[in-house]
Known about the structure:
Distance between the termini: 32 Å
Helix content: over 70%
Largest sheet: none
Amino acid sequence: LEANLALTRRYFSQENILVAQTNFAACLSELGRHDEALVLKRDSYAREVAMFGVSDENALMSGNNVAVSLNKLLICDEARTLVGDQLLPAALKSLGADHNVTLKLNH
Length: 107
């Protein structure tokens, strides 16, 4: 998986890199390697925000992935701050209160 991610970073577009990195982070999480997954998820979120803006649906989901990892690592205050101060307000403004992503963030 790590070799695949390295090749993807070298030869593919930023969007493909984000997909591969997100998938790799999910695999790490499934293996219980939450600290390593968090590093990749933070990087993916930062790239999504830089490329598409904080209100982009994919960026919001990426931010939610960061919050989930923070909670798994018992870094709950940072997770609450991320969701409450950044993600949820952006989702409400750009997607509306009834959107699936907004509802997921509000849960």
